[in-house]
Amino acid sequence: MKIAIISDIHSNIEALHAVLRKIDKEKVDVIVNLGDIVGYNASPDECVTEIRKCEAISVSGNHDSAVHDLTARESFNVFANQAIRWSHFKLSKENKDFLKKLPLLAIVWDRFIACHGTLKSNDSYIVKPFQARRMFNIMRKEYQRINICFFGHTHRQAVWSRDVRGKVKQLKLNENPIHLNPEEMYLINPGSVGQPRQNDWRASFLTFEPEEAKITFYSVPYDLYKAQQKILKAELPSFLAERLAEGV
Q1: DSSP secondary structure string for all residues of 16-43
Q2: What is the model's pLDDT at position 171?
Q3: How does pLDDT run across 161-192, given as a tens digit for each residue?
Q4: Which of 29, 88, 16, 36 is nearest to 55 (CA)?
Q5: What is the maximum alpha-carbon separation in the chain?
Q6: CATH number of the domain within which 237 lies
Q7: How many domains does one find in the chain?
Q8: What residue numbers bound the domain in which 217 lies?
């Protein structure tokens, strides 16, 4: 079996279409979406419709929550706030209802956990060792049989591991694919489809092959200019268009 893990689409239909084409070429069996389908960019309704159409297993991101929950926007910067307010009026009722019903996390076939930020919040980050350690502790306490959690929110590809002695480290992504040790625990981020922040504008995702205990990262080019022009035409902040090209 081959599973595609995608995250942080953020209303970028051009990037999503490019990723879905690559996923199709890779003969993926199922897609898992780690949240933030909407926000920032200019095609929120189209992106939600596409995710529903491909029947992806999905969890809620903080921007997805903010569409229907004003309090979820309190931590947003001015650009994110403006974009999510704009998105609210562009989404169909059916797509708003879909976002509202998304769970905080999903346990997929008792093999791995899917979440957006952390297991306790879709607006918390895993970027430092103490944050990864906290997540591993929750997994050991509440999900003893599962050793892999896929998460998003940071918009950066990342792999954290915890060995049998309890040592936590962030792996250097020099090798691709990466083979996972079944005796260790992992926190894995596929990066962002629609707004990458690792100094690379290309859309990011990964595939996971459980039987081979293997993940493979992908970076896919897409029609960047078209996505930028849609942002400007919608009169969203020009910074949101500029940052796409810079991958920040």
Answers
A1: HHHHHHHHHHTT-SEEEE-S--SSSSS-
A2: 97
A3: 999 999 999 999 999 999 999 999 999 999 99
A4: 29
A5: 54
A6: 3.60.21.10
A7: 1
A8: 3-246
